[in-house]
Amino acid sequence: MPLIDLRQARAEVRWHEVLELLGWRPRTRLAAQVRGPCPVHGSQSPRSRIFSAQLDRNVWHCFRCGAGGNALDLWAQVTHQGIHDAVLELYRRLCRSVPWLPPRQK
Question: DSSP 3-state assignment of 83?
Fold first, then answer.
């Protein structure tokens, strides 16, 4: 199985793209922090702010379920996939070429 350059993928995939694909809308925004319901465990309260994403640092955390990570991790967790399959699907949905690592020289 070819390897994905996850460092490049993390740098290329923007938060707003992942959140838009998930249909997520923030309840509040303060500078580079957005808060709202958690897309991982599906909080239902219309005023929920337990999910926090730091857009400038590319990290997120849910204060209820404890999940967290970067934009790729969020996509993987919400879609219930491993990171490899999640990145492949995400790049397909974004109509981009997957950043493959070159094969190792023997």
Answer: helix
Length of the chain: 106
Specify whether the CB–CB gap between 94 and 9 falls below 8 A.
Answer: no
Extents of the domains making up the chain: 6-93
- Token digits of residue 17: 């793209």
pTM: 0.89
Long-range Cβ contact pairs of 75-83 (< 8 A, separation 24 or more): 75/18, 75/21, 75/22, 77/40, 78/22, 78/39, 78/40, 83/6
The per-residue pLDDT of the chain, averaged, comes to: 92
Task: Give the CATH architecture of domain 6-93.
Answer: Alpha-Beta Complex (3.90)
Check residue 59 and give its pLDDT.
92
In the chain, where do the E strands start and end?
Answer: 28-30, 33-36, 51-54, 59-62, 68-69
Query: Which one, of 27, 23, 43, lies nearest residue 35 by Cα?
Result: 27
